[in-house]
Structures are given as C-alpha cells and as structure tokens.
C-alpha cells in the first residue's frame, strides 16, 4: 500500500508539473513560475519518498538489527531541504520581476490549467495523509503535507494573478510570488525540524505514553511496579522498553509469563510496537514507578 501510494504520487507530480509549466508558458507569470518550480520539487521529493519506503520495507539484518525504518526520515529531510531551495529560487525570480515587471498573456487559460493541477494536488494530498497516518509512514505524511502546502501556494498564486487581471497592476504578480516563497520556506523548515526530532529518537506523545502506563498497570497482574518507561519512533514502529518489578521469590518462569502477557497486550492495543521488558526484584522498586493494580 505505501509503495503503491508513493509510486502514484510520482506519476501525479509529473502530470502536475506539466500542467503548471504549461500555465507559466502561456502567461509568463513569475508567480505561476514559482508554483511550477515547487511542483518540480514535488517530483524529486516523491521519488525520494518512493526510494525511502522501499529501503524501509526491507527486513532487519545483521548490520541493521532494528530494521531500516528510519530511511523514511531522510526522505522527509531531503524534501524539506528541497523546499527551502525552491523558496530561495522563487524569491530571486520575484526580485528580478519586481525590477522589470511585464504584462501577462492568456491569463484566463493559464489560470484554468493551473486550477486543474491544484485540484489534483488537493485530492491526492488528502489521500496521502490518510494512508500515511494509518500506516504511520513519515515519508507519505511528509509528501501529503507538501502537496497540501502546494495547494495553499497555488491558491495564493491564482489570487495574485487574478488581481493582476482585474487591476492591471503587474507588480502584484512578483509580490504574490514572494508571499508564496515565504510560506514554502516555513513549510520546509517544519519538515526538516520534525524529521530531525525523529532522527534524534523523540519520545512518543504524552497521550501514547499514558496509554502505555495504564495498560501496564492493568495487565501486569502478579508484578508489583513498573518504572523507567522509554519510547521512540522509527517509521511505523514504536520501540518501548521499561523495567518491571516482581516479588523477589517469584520464579523466572512466572516472571517471563507476565512479560509475555504484557507484550502481547501492548502489541494488540498499540499495533507496530516492539516491546522490551527488564525484570527486577522487589528491592529495586522506585517510588515514582507505576503501581500494578
């Protein structure tokens, strides 16, 4: 599902580039040029996402015992960096156009062609976000957010070009391009920042951590306490580890049975989890731990 969605994203991006490039050639609008340039970045980013998903789907091996899921974050970082590069190029083009504004041609047809491309981006961006959220895929979600940011910039461009047609003030075209570039720069920054957090093993959300602790408290019957919870994400996998305190007289077999039951319960309630439990004797209990009910 993820690889197919990424492959379709590449095909869609190529179609959108052709449409937006045609709109720019029809009109000569620097704002439409900026929109087309961002769509070129979409093609490269979608290709990178497809490659990252292929790498991430490979099973764990001797060199990568925790799997290859983090490859998706490199794709998201590349996409963010490309967006930043595109925004700087747009600003340069807009500055040139502000110094030498020129009349636009065939605005009606150019706007119609660009509008079709924008609708395609909106529809597939929504789809990628749904699939990415369901599969917990950073690459698909980054691609979906990028397409929807492209929709926002396209709408801004279309408004700017429309105002040029209504007012005859050609400087509005490069001004719209500058606004687009600033928004694109912000989106690129957020993508890079989020990917860096994930590469640095950012913990799961407070809601997920609370769900985990509640589950352990309710399902670890026979144990006394759990503490030192740690979580991190790697693509669609959530790595979880914690310490479980059991009575000092409990046998290894009985403690292992509790761990097996806990692991099965957590993986059922939190799909995609990889759980590691360290068993400790009663003397190692901590006051701040989670009491088992």
UniProtKB/TrEMBL annotation:
This is Cadmium transporter. Belongs to the cation diffusion facilitator (CDF) transporter (TC 2.A.4) family. GO terms for biological process: intracellular zinc ion homeostasis. Gene3D superfamilies: Cation efflux protein transmembrane domain, Cation efflux protein, cytoplasmic domain. It comes from the Bacteria. It is a multi-pass membrane protein. InterPro entries: Cation_efflux, Cation_efflux_CTD, Cation_efflux_CTD_sf, Cation_efflux_TM, Cation_efflux_TMD_sf, CDF_Transporter. Residues 205-282 form the Cation efflux protein cytoplasmic domain.
């Amino acid at each position: 599902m993820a690889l197919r969605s990424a492959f379709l994203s590449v095909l869609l991006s190529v179609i959108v580039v052709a449409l937006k490039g045609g709109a720019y050639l029809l009109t000569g609008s620097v704002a439409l040029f900026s929109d087309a340039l961002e769509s070129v970045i979409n093609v490269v980013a979608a290709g990178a996402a497809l490659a990252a998903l292929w790498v991430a789907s490979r099973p764990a091996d001797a060199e990568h015992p925790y799997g290859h899921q983090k490859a998706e974050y490199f794709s998201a970082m590349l996409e963010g960096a490309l967006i930043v590069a595109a925004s700087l190029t747009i600003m340069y083009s807009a500055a040139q156009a502000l110094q030498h504004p020129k009349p636009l041609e065939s605005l009606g047809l150019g706007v119609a062609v660009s509008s079709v491309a924008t609708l395609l981006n909106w529809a597939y961006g929504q789809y990628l976000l749904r699939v990415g959220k369901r599969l917990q895929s950073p690459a698909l979600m980054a691609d979906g957010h990028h397409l929807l940011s492209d929709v926002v910039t396209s709408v801004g461009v279309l408004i700017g070009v429309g105002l040029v047609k209504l007012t005859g003030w050609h400087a509005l075209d490069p001004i719209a391009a500058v606004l687009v570039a600033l928004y694109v720069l912000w989106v690129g920054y957020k993508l890079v920042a989020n990917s860096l957090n994930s590469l640095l093993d950012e913990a799961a959300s407070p809601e997920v951590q609370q769900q985990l602790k509640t589950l352990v408290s309710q399902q670890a019957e026979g144990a006394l306490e759990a503490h030192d919870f740690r979580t991190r994400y790697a693509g669609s996998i959530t790595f979880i580890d914690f310490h479980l305190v059991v009575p000092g007289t409990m046998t290894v077999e009985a403690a292992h049975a509790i761990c097996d039951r806990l692991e099965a319960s957590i993986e059922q309630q939190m799909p995609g989890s990889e759980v590691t439990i360290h068993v400790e004797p009663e003397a190692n209990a901590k006051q701040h731990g989670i009491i088992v009910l």
